[in-house]
Amino acid sequence: MAFALRKRGPSTFERAADGSMTLIEHVRELRNRLFRASLAILIGFGFGFWLAEPVRKLLSQPYCDLPQSVDPDTGKCLFVQLGVADVFLLNLKIGLWVGLIIAAPVWLYQLWAFIAPGLHRNERRYAYIFTALAAPLFAAGAVLAFFVTTKGLEFLLNVSGDDIATNLEVTRYISFVTNLILLFGVAFEFPLIVLMLNFVGLASAKKLLSWWRVAIFVFFAFSAVVTPTPDPFGMTALALCLSALYFAAVGVAFINDKRRGRGKEIYAGIDDDEVSPLEYEAEPVEAGQRIDVTAPVDIPEPIAKPAPIERRYDDMT
């Protein structure tokens, strides 16, 4: 029994018949773009580590503005360092965050260049709009977090009294401020989710407006949980800002629905059990001709069945 050896053709992982990119080519492109993004972040980390000291002083400003933080002998704002390398590691952490911000245009472009070929034209347009709105919203949340930190520390440190010396540990304080900034910045991205639901057609503007009571309750509950200070100022400020952004997003949703003509469909405004009105007058139909049932009817002859085909035993193989 002989076996015929065939030459192996190109694998589907190496070449595509329609000229599109194959799996290996996608992996190579992902590798190249990750390398470029990592290189940009590494360069940004170098600048960030150089700017770590000024950034740390900026984040310490809410605490240093309080009279409790000033040393009466030297007149300087003092923190406590528990470990030998705590400040050095903190500068590395701050440098990494600053490096990510500095290199954001590069690694965001690399991410977008890898994803964009698989999107439609309208999806790309929406991505441009949401990206353009995400950055200022995050910045607004960071500014509000800085304000809440200032008012919250003032409230908390005044509660302790004059008979208690207050010295904050530097790494825990910076982590407290950065986590608050990150949390408020992410919370301010919520209106983009509302707009996304409207733009893709999952929720109309009227439906979103009907949820305003639930939305405000969720905002206040979320603010009460995520705000680390027990004072009502930070919670109220965050909840009011989120509520204002929600109503602004609903306003944009109304404009989008009006532009797309939503709500003007044929059956809009008609209940499920209501009969839709007819907006035209029915034309009268003339009676057809009478059929004489006594007239002879020509019945066609039945078609003869074809003769069966004889099959041999070797036709079944």
Would you kindly provide a written description of the structure presented here, covering whatever features stand out?
The protein has about 325 residues and is an all-alpha fold. Helix content is about 60%, strand content about 0%. It has eleven helices and no strands. Helix 1 crosses helix 4. It is elongated, with a radius of gyration of 35 Å. The N terminus is likely disordered.
Radius of gyration from the alpha-carbon trace, in angstroms:
35 Å
Q: What fraction, in percent, of the residue positions are helical?
A: 55-70%
Q: What is the global morphology? A: elongated
Q: In angstroms, what separates the terminal alpha carbons? A: 20 Å
Strand content: under 5%
SSE pattern: HHHHHHHHHHH
Q: Report the strand count.
A: 0
Structural class: mainly alpha
Low-confidence regions? 1-18
Largest sheet: number of strands, sense, barrel closure:
none
Overall average pLDDT: 77
Total count of helical runs of at least 4 residues: 11
Give the key terms:
317 residues; mainly alpha; 11 helices; elongated; disordered N terminus
